[in-house]
């Protein structure tokens, strides 16, 4: 379902006083990202009526992306490697925020695939009671690495996931799992 902001003009955003000469660096119907001359970032997420649903200041640039017209992901890299990236989602149609997830590999059809260290988890973005599957049996998985998972992605229209991990010899191994 495609929603449009009820106001014709762009929503007004009251910027924090600590921003020095901010400028818009990215925007879409449901968000606006600012950067100031000190490399401080501020974003505002808008609900379907153009009101600010959430806004935050960051010392690094967040990655904001719109999926399926009304699902917004907000990610921040806190260090090096995918395991140090956190992501949360906002559903404009439902005016709902998800939990914060770490090591997110992807999302499709209202589900995400992420790692909690030695497992891969697929779950509904907004409710683990709607759908959750944990995959934790990987033959010969590497034990002495920060994260053995190289990639995880939805395949076959979200009916399966494909996981690539490092084995004890640090070779990449790829396996597919059904999502029933």
Give start-end ranges of low-pLDDT stretches: 1-8
Number of domains: 2
Give the helix/strand class.
Answer: mainly beta
**Mean pLDDT rating:** 90
Shape, principal axes of CA atoms: globular
Order of helices and strands: EEEEEEEEEEEEEEEE
Count, helices: 0
* Proportion of residues in β-strands: over 45%
Major sheet: 5 strands, antiparallel
Instruction: Tell me the total number of β-strands.
Output: 16
State the end-to-end distance.
26 Å
Share of helical residues: under 10%
Gyration radius, in Å: 19 Å
Structure description:
By secondary structure, the chain is mainly beta. It has two domains: 18-102; 105-180, no CATH class. The chain has strands spanning 23-28, 31-35, 41-46, 52-58, 63-67, 71-77, 85-91, 96-97, 101-102, 104-108, 111-115, 120-124, 132-135, 149-155, 160-166, 172-178. The strands form four sheets. Strands 5, 6, 7, 8 and 9 form a five-stranded antiparallel β-sheet that branches. It has a four-stranded antiparallel β-sheet with strand order 1-2-3-4, with no helix packed on it. Strands 10-11-12-13 form a four-stranded antiparallel β-sheet, with no helix packed on it. A hairpin with a 4-residue loop joins strand 7 and strand 8 (96-97). The protein is globular. The two termini are 26 Å apart.
SSE inventory with pairings:
Layout: E1 23-28, E2 31-35, E3 41-46, E4 52-58, E5 63-67, E6 71-77, E7 85-91, E8 96-97, E9 101-102, E10 104-108, E11 111-115, E12 120-124, E13 132-135, E14 149-155, E15 160-166, E16 172-178
Antiparallel strand pairs: 1-2, 2-3, 3-4, 5-6, 6-7, 7-8, 7-9, 10-11, 11-12, 12-13, 14-15, 15-16
């Amino acid at each position: 379902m495609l929603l449009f902001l009820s106001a014709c003009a762009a929503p007004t955003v009251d910027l924090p006083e600590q921003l020095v000469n901010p400028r818009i660096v990215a925007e879409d119907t449901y968000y606006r990202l600012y950067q100031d001359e000190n490399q401080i970032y501020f974003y505002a997420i808008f609900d379907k009526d153009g009101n600010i649903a959430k806004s935050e200041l960051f010392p690094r640039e967040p990655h904001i992306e719109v999926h399926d017209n009304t699902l917004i992901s907000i990610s921040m890299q806190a260090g090096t490697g995918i395991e140090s990236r956190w992501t949360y989602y906002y559903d404009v149609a439902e005016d709902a925020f998800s939990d914060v997830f770490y090591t997110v590999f992807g999302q499709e059809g209202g589900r995400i695939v992420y790692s909690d260290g030695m497992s891969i988890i697929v779950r509904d973005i907004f409710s683990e009671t709607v759908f959750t599957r944990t995959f934790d049996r990987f033959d010969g998985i590497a034990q002495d690495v920060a994260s053995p998972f190289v990639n995880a992605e939805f395949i076959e229209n979200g009916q399966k996931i494909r996981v690539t991990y490092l084995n004890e010899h640090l070779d990449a191994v790829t396996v597919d799992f059904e999502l029933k």
